[in-house]
Amino acid sequence: MKDLLQYLDASPSRFHAVDNLKKLLEAEGYQTLSEGTAWDLTAGGKYLAVRGGSALAAFRLPEKKAQGFMISASHSDSPCFRVKQNAELAGPEKYLRLNTEKYGGMLFAPWLDRPLTVAGRVLVKDGDAIQTRLVYVDKDLLMIPNVAGHMNRAANDGFKYDPKCDMVPLLGLDGEKGTFQAIVAQSAGCKAEDILGADLFLCPRQKAVVWGAADEFISSPRLDDLQCAWGCFQGFLAAKESGSVPVYALLDNEEIGSRTKQGADGTFLEDVIARVCAAAGMDRLAATANSFVVSADNAHAVHPNHPEYHDATHRPAMNAGVVIKHGVRYATDGVAQAVFASLCEKAGVPVQHFANRSDLPGGGTLGLISTSHVSVNTVDIGLAQLAMHSCVETAGSKDTDYLVQAMAAFYSASFREENGRFILD
Ligand code: ZN
Prior knowledge:
By secondary structure, the protein is of the alpha/beta class. It has nine helices and 22 strands.
């Protein structure tokens, strides 16, 4: 659990979330492949590729010819505020504010009255080339102040926040033009005029914490989906060699529909599969038929103050195991459920089930989107959490370990179908 908290704290943006896993994989002997060169792979080799700086795929080739792929996919992004290109808003009065826009569907209120900063990447001039530098301004830099209750008398009566007005963060007083650029450049270790492009996002300064009468809970920014990303990653590393290729995928832009080159609606995952098949002499169509995808994205725990929002017979609890998600917005079907539940049973991991209350549509996941590109049996799962899409979310402190065990069992297995019989070996 300590390692999850460290990963959350060290990953204030999607670019950091990917870079941290890349470094851990390289320390484990994984070789980084470039998408811009041909892939020369050897049996027993361990590899990774990064797309767009914010998506990563890692895999191992077994010693014997593989029959298929055992894949997990989670997402690196979280709902937040993106810093706009012309970022500084001078005034009113002597205030200097930062111009931002919504990224994904977040709860607004939790972003107010708490220290914030910016994280992401900048693209810096480097001779004839352009270099990427990760940015995390390591100070309490920004705040979005509430309006006093004396002035906004409606504040406690279902107040509607306006993102262009209520959610604008305050950066300084008497700030000169260029203040923000100078702060970012200093953090990136370059000159402000050498920054040619940027992808910067607001992030809360709060660290991940364990809390509760018996340390039952963890709270942190970005638990959705870095908790599942981490649990799948640890399971991937811990797995034994099977007759299939284990693939760990972390994809970006799930919160805005996945339709980017590094999102689940891009070709990253199918490109990796195609290249592995070509390099390892696998029949691509047969190999994909013998494959299985776990789409891992957090699930809703029953809320202590609002248990009525859950379906009558699908009520996930924290610290009670991995949640399988069912319904029209998820990829899970009976086969996927049966396969994943049987792997969990083998691993001694409890399983719970989630379905939306029939009048609440709920959110989608990357499961169905990924299935439209890599059309294989797919299960949607998650870990139970509270306050999804708040800037600080809460989950059970024991559930990450359940996911690690389940995914270690998943990645140690192979999957194939023979005339309606599904075989895990
Ligand atoms: Zn998510």
